[in-house]
Amino acid sequence: MAREADIPALHRVMNRAIETLQAGFLDPAQVAASHKVMGLDSQLVRDGTYFLVEDGDNIAGCGGWSFRATLYGGDASIVGREPARLDPARDVAKVRAMYTDPDFVRRGVGRLILELCEDAARGAGFARVELMATAAGVPLYRSCGYAPLGAGEDAEVDGVTVPLLRMGKALI
């Protein structure tokens, strides 16, 4: 579980992941704009719903789930966030801020974090989970049973379009 003291290191992993992993899917302007859309929502850390996977002293990856209405966006992002609590009887949990350090891709880190999030959301009584996928994340989410929920929901940042795709999955 991530702690407040981990936040600076989490930001470094996220910045590296955005710069390196998104570059294979987005042009340089979209990668730069992604920093204004993505990032850590420190509310997840305070809620105790944000995980990290470590390899020695290095954070290999991180991600969390939320019982709040916000689907995506970090503390410094331009997208609106909604901290209202969700009702597991009628709402879907959110998987949020999934990042793998570029030095640890293709080693099962993202899949492990996703499983931790799903198990925790299921344990909290949620029957479904959804997320907003980046272009780089879509292949992982598809391989883990997530399906698109409609058309893409791109974010516009300073005239630059950042492609995003809402995806979901049943937990039971």
Number of helices: 5
Write the CATH homologous superfamily. Gcn5-related N-acetyltransferase (GNAT)
Poorly predicted regions? none
Helix content, binned percent: 25-40%
Structural class: alpha+beta
Query: What share of residues are in beta strands?
Result: 25-35%
List the helices and strands and how they pair.
Layout: H1 7-21, H2 28-34, H3 42-47, E1 50-55, E2 58-66, E3 93-100, H4 109-123, E4 128-134, H5 138-143, E5 147-148, E6 155-157, E7 160-162, E8 164-170
Parallel strand pairs: 3-4
Antiparallel strand pairs: 1-2, 2-3, 4-8, 5-8, 6-7
3D structure, described in words:
The chain has helices spanning about 5-20, 30-35, 40-45, 110-125, 140-145, and strands at about 50-55, 60-65, 95-100, 130-135, 145-150, 155, 160, 165-170. Strand 3 (about 95-100), helix 4 (about 110-125) and strand 4 form a beta-alpha-beta unit. It has a single domain (about 5-170), classed as Aminopeptidase. The mean pLDDT is about 95. The chain contains 5 helices and 8 strands. The chain has about 170 residues and is of the alpha+beta class. Strands 1-2-3-4-8-5 form a 6-stranded mixed β-sheet. Strands 6-7 form a two-stranded antiparallel ribbon. The two termini are about 25 Å apart. It is globular.
Produce a short descriptive summary.
With 172 residues, the chain is an alpha+beta fold.
Keywords:
172 residues, 5 helices, 6-stranded mixed beta sheet, alpha+beta, Aminopeptidase, two-stranded antiparallel ribbon
